[in-house]
Design goal:
mainly beta, 6-stranded mixed sheet, two-stranded antiparallel sheet
């Protein structure tokens, strides 16, 4: 049903420094840390192979999040990072019964084949 209201609001803001995370850590890898405080999620995002984080996604309300980006790296963000990591689209997809897969796709004899694996293992080569 079209209501004229946005389903989800993202507020993007440049900052000098990122907040310190407070909550229960639910995921960690060298380029991302995720914590949950109640039902709200907060993510610090980094660049694979580099030390530190350059952005933070934090849920403010059930339908609103703030995305903080450090000024030092705002021009370096690849678009896939913005859409998948910073906007936490996996959380939005789950609400609609969807799923985000990190995979390669080929068409073989009219059928699709997905190859799912972690980044850097050679799916696209």
């Amino acid at each position: 049903m079209e209501t004229g209201k946005p389903e989800y609001i993202y507020r993007l803001r440049e900052v000098h420094s990122l907040p310190v995370l407070d909550g229960n850590q639910i995921a960690w890898r060298p380029d991302m840390e995720v914590v949950r405080d109640g039902t709200k999620e907060i993510r610090l995002i980094g660049i694979k192979g580099k030390v530190g984080y350059y952005a933070c996604y934090q849920e403010i309300y059930s339908r609103e999040a703030e995305v903080l980006v450090t000024r030092l790296v705002r021009d370096l963000m690849p678009s896939d990072t913005v859409y998948s990591s910073l906007f936490a689209l996996d959380r939005r997809m789950i609400e609609y019964g969807g799923l985000i897969l990190h995979c390669a796709y080929i068409n073989h004899r009219g059928k699709g084949i997905l190859f799912s694996a972690p980044s850097g293992v050679g799916k696209s080569t």
